[in-house]
Amino acid sequence: MKRVLYVAILIFSINIIYSCNQANNENTEDITVREVWNAQKANEWYAQQQWLRGSNFIPSTAINQLEMWQEDTFDPETIDRELGFAESIGFNSMRVYLHHLAWQIDPDGFKNRINDYLEIAESHGISTMFVIFDDCWNPTYEAGVQPGPKPGIHNSGWLRDPGDSIYINPDMITNLELYVKDILTTFGDDERIVLWDLYNEPGNSGYGNKSMPLLEKVFTWGREVNPSQPLSSGVWSWNLEEISEYQLNNSDVITYHNYGSAENHQSMIDTLRTLTEKPLICTEYMARTRNSTFQNTMPILKSENIGAYNWGLVAGKTNTIYAWDTPMPDGSEPTVWFHDIFRNDGTPYSREEVDLIKELTGKSN
């Protein structure tokens, strides 16, 4: 009798496990991965936008994404003041980096702070492009108090996401999927968000094609959620052929970076025009000592109807007034700022630049 009962329980258990597995398989099969937008849909979307112009934004009081988004250091007063500077020169959009660790330690609080940021930005007539993952600068990170800036060192505290952690602990991919889908589901129909930049400069920091699996996954996750906003990842290095090809083929609208001269930038635009009929948005440009300036590049972007997001709004803890490869360990101010437009009191680095920006954005009228 006991043996019969044991066998019955075993069969029942196997049936339950089988049923669960079947359900999981059915759920997996039911997930729809939408198609990449075609050129017609992409251009119809772009025609509904104003000319997008703005900066890559982090408040001057934050050294990195965690300091911007963690509860203890989230700084709405500075955000409000500095987005006011952007509004005053006619900027209408900002590109802003998130970080999965801020979500992991406090999902609801993180999303509430994103909403708070979006409310502030909207009050200044500014839309937002959020960046999900990033392969630039420091490879590791910790929650809590962030380090202070190293004098004269460009972006000394900026964080990759997920950085080296994904190679040390591949199982974290499950958590990253939950993060991406939670954020895109929560804000996927939010009209204050103009675009999702899924992965900044994949393959940077020597990763190369090691970044391809995550790049592919984040696009798949994004298309499974299917937010109303377009999905993209910016082409930034033609040397990474496989990554660049994937970005071009899988982005709903085409985003790119260029820190070269006006001639170099125009050449990149011309090349991209031969590769795609989709709209172009430049999500990083303007490095004065590399001859990428507002004066020689922003007029091109406007005339070509290309979205224009320079790096840096207000000089602060990121130290992006210093060039990538020219540290100034004494912390003195460089004669020529590399990035950024304003000092933290709202004084422009260059009145000439600000006057030009206002002329191009129609704010000078």
From TrEMBL:
SUPFAM superfamilies, A to Z: (Trans)glycosidases
Q: Where is the signal peptide?
A: 1-23
Looking at the record's lineage, which domain of life comes first? Bacteria
**Which terms under GO biological process does the entry name?**
carbohydrate metabolic process
Residue ranges occupied by any Glycoside hydrolase family 2 catalytic domain in the UniProt entry: 192-293
One Pfam family of this protein, by short name?
Answer: Glyco_hydro_2_C
The entry lists its GO molecular-function terms as:
hydrolase activity, hydrolyzing O-glycosyl compounds
Keywords of the record: Signal
Descriptive protein name? Glycoside hydrolase family 2 catalytic domain-containing protein
Species of the source = Petrimonas mucosa
